[in-house]
Design goal:
Structural class: alpha+beta
Number of strands: 7
CATH topology: Cyclic Phosphodiesterase, Chain: A
Oligomer: single chain
């Protein structure tokens, strides 16, 4: 994993996620399903879930006039995310960030005020969505900023070799391997490695359909920006 440090400062979040996924699959865990590059995503707001196609189309029609303003929200409201780390449970591994609070920026090598945070962005997207007349029925209301990298598809990496139950030693090795990667990531935080501003390159992507694992169809893609543009 020594080569990881040399790459961190130049990587965008999606590249980060792919690189970490490859490291996990090739050096640490074999029973993984890796998220395809074009499906990597971070959810700012889930409007609803478990609806029929006709119900979704009705909600899209209600929101349509307000969607461009929602998806362009990050263009004039810059929210920076920092300190990437792997988070994991029995189902999946994700690359998680926290809202910036004045840390040094990799782009400017200066500290910022970060008075507008990712939490503010989520609040504003929620309020703008409510104004269109829809009811917000999200499955998960706890604030989170993460990209799912991979999901466990088997337990073979942590089961006993004879296949009978979890092997505590192998489980310990897995957790220690994940935390070794986190230590590498954390060592780069003072340099601003891995920080990014929501809306860089493209704005928010309003999507409908079967959105699990990054699926579905784009309704409207917001305007993005480059850092020297504004």
């Amino acid at each position: 994993m020594g080569s990881l440090q040399a790459l961190l400062l130049e990587m965008a979040p999606s590249q980060y996620a792919i690189a970490l996924g490859v490291i996990l699959a090739h050096h640490l865990i074999t029973g993984l399903w890796l998220m395809p590059l074009d499906c990597l995503h971070m959810t700012v707001l889930e409007v609803t879930h478990s609806k029929t196609e006709s119900e979704i189309e009705h909600l899209v029609a209600l929101m349509r006039d307000g969607i461009p303003r929602i998806t362009d929200c990050p263009f004039d409201h810059r929210a920076r995310l920092v300190k990437p780390m792997l988070s994991y449970d029995a189902a999946a591994i994700a690359l998680s960030f926290v809202p910036a609070a004045g840390e040094a920026s990799a782009q400017t090598s200066k500290t910022g005020t970060d008075t507008y945070t990712y939490h503010h962005l989520r609040r504003d997207v929620y309020a703008l969505s409510k104004k269109t007349g829809v009811e917000i029925v999200s499955r998960y209301t706890v604030p989170s900023s993460h990209l799912t990298i991979a999901r466990f598809v088997t337990q073979k990496d942590v089961t006993k070799h004879e296949g009978k139950g979890i092997d505590p030693g192998r489980m310990t090795e897995l957790v220690e391997g994940l935390e070794a990667i986190n230590a590498e990531l954390q060592s780069q935080w003072p340099k601003g490695a891995g920080d990014w501003i929501v809306g860089e390159e493209k704005g928010l992507d309003c999507r409908k359909g079967r959105l699990w694992y990054g699926g579905g169809q784009t309704v409207h893609l917001g305007n993005g920006f480059v850092l020297d543009e504004k």
